[in-house]
Design a protein that fits this description.
By secondary structure, the protein is an all-alpha fold. It has one domain: Up-down Bundle (Formate dehydrogenase/DMSO reductase fold). The chain is built from 16 helices and no strands. The protein has helices spanning 2-7, 15-37, 39-42, 53-64, 67-78, 88-110, 118-121, 128-152, 158-193, 210-236, 244-270, 282-302, 305-308, 311-341, 349-372, 385-397. The radius of gyration is 22 Å and the shape is globular.
Length: 398
């Protein structure tokens, strides 16, 4: 015991740990300000602009960027692409953490988190938010069940572990099918929520086909986030994974973005919104930035073999896609509504702090889940000593 205590040492203070600590402190203060002081002190939201950063980033982006989980799960379990099974758990975990961040963001946005259970028993079928709240709860449950074997495998009680894994195997295909349906519904109905803004949302973004646009843009963006998470795992956590898998997944992204881009142009023409593309105003500039990042640049880059086959270049290309996707969701939820509301909304720093804290927590959970759980194949010989010890301890318990 004394020898173990003598070997104990505090973690080193590094630049990244300092940054994370500062993010946590700022985020905790923002959380206190939101729930103890209210919207007026914690945000720049008003009655004219009631939805801001927490909806645009926390909800719309969190849901959309989680689409990679159901896409990879459907490819493996429903279409039989066993090639992608090694990245299945990681993609499901990314989706689960994405939905967890959505739930956290909704707590900040809506307040009164102790009433989160109300939609379960207080049904309002005329409300679009009712459907969205049910999809969040149901799909989060499905993702938790899909990911649960990674945790149950570490349970030391063999009987309980074997019983659960056998039961899980029997319902797995049903879970995957339910996840595909629920995620597809949720991706679409988030766009449907903004059908209520007819006459207020700028013509560059308002469309009767918002449900389809949201769905078509979410799948490639979700796959891009999955590629980014896998690349960082290979680079920083010594995960032993064939980099060609990243290249193969990226081949699907470019056609999906092309379909989205074509649909977007046709939709603008049908809604007689093409003249707005050439007006000198902030909304038009935001639109072109969004299209450049989400459609034009990624399609060009992903058509180059050197980009697709180089994990680092592919990572940055996926980062561009994610940036374009986030720009789109912020444009729909904030930029496109400012002219009609007459309010120029700039988020308060506490809104950024809370959002950044939630995203950082999700990244930390993913990091340590990859280290301590059997999510991705690992090269333990290259791991830091404390991680090798943790892996050996976990294996012994299993």
């Amino acid at each position: 015991m004394l020898r173990k205590l003598s070997n104990f040492s505090l973690p080193k203070i590094t630049l990244w740990r300092t940054i994370v600590a500062l993010i946590m402190v700022a985020g905790l203060y923002a959380t206190y300000a939101r729930f103890a002081m209210g919207f007026a002190r914690a945000t720049h939201l008003t009655d004219a602009q009631p939805w801001g950063l927490w909806v645009g980033i926390g909800t719309l982006c969190g849901v959309g960027l989680s689409a990679g989980g159901f896409a990879i799960a459907a490819a493996v379990y429903l279409l039989g692409f066993e090639r992608y099974r090694p990245v299945l758990r990681a993609s499901v975990l990314v989706s689960f953490l994405g939905y967890s961040s959505v739930i956290a963001g909704m707590m900040y946005e809506l307040g009164l988190p102790w009433r989160i259970w109300h939609p379960i028993v207080m049904w309002n079928r005329a409300s679009m938010l009712f459907e969205i709240s049910w999809c969040v709860m149901l799909y989060s449950t499905v993702l938790a069940l899909e990911f649960s074997p990674a945790l149950v495998e570490k349970i030391p009680w063999t009987g309980v572990r074997n019983w659960y894994l056998k039961w899980h195997h029997e319902i797995l295909i049903g879970l995957v099918m339910a996840g595909v349906v629920l995620s597809s519904l949720h991706q679409s109905f988030l766009g449907g929520l903004y059908l209520l803004t007819k006459g207020k949302l700028d013509p560059l973004w308002y469309s009767p086909n918002l449900t389809t646009l949201f769905y078509l843009s979410a799948i490639p963006a979700g796959l891009a986030v999955t590629i980014m998470a896998l690349y960082l795992s290979i680079r920083s956590l010594d995960v032993k994974l064939d980099p060609k898998i990243l290249s193969e997944v990226s081949r699907v992204i470019a056609p999906l973005l092309a379909i989205y881009g074509i649909f977007r142009v046709v939709d603008l023409a049908k809604n007689e919104a093409l003249p707005y593309l050439f007006m000198w105003r902030e909304e038009t500039l935001s639109f072109w930035l969004e299209v450049a990042l989400l459609v034009i640049a990624p399609i060009v880059l992903l058509s180059i073999d050197k980009v697709r086959n180089d994990p680092q270049r592919l990572y940055w290309t996926c980062a561009v896609i994610v940036g374009g996707f986030m720009t789109n969701r912020v444009d729909v939820s904030v930029t496109g509504l400012q002219r009609s509301s007459g309010v120029y909304y700039v988020p308060q720093w506490t809104e950024f702090a809370a959002t950044l804290m939630v995203m950082t927590l999700a990244a930390l959970v993913f990091r340590y889940a990859v280290i301590y759980l059997d999510i991705l194949p690992k090269n333990t010989a290259k791991m830091p000593p404390r991680f090798r010890w943790a892996m050996k301890g976990a294996a012994a318990e299993a």
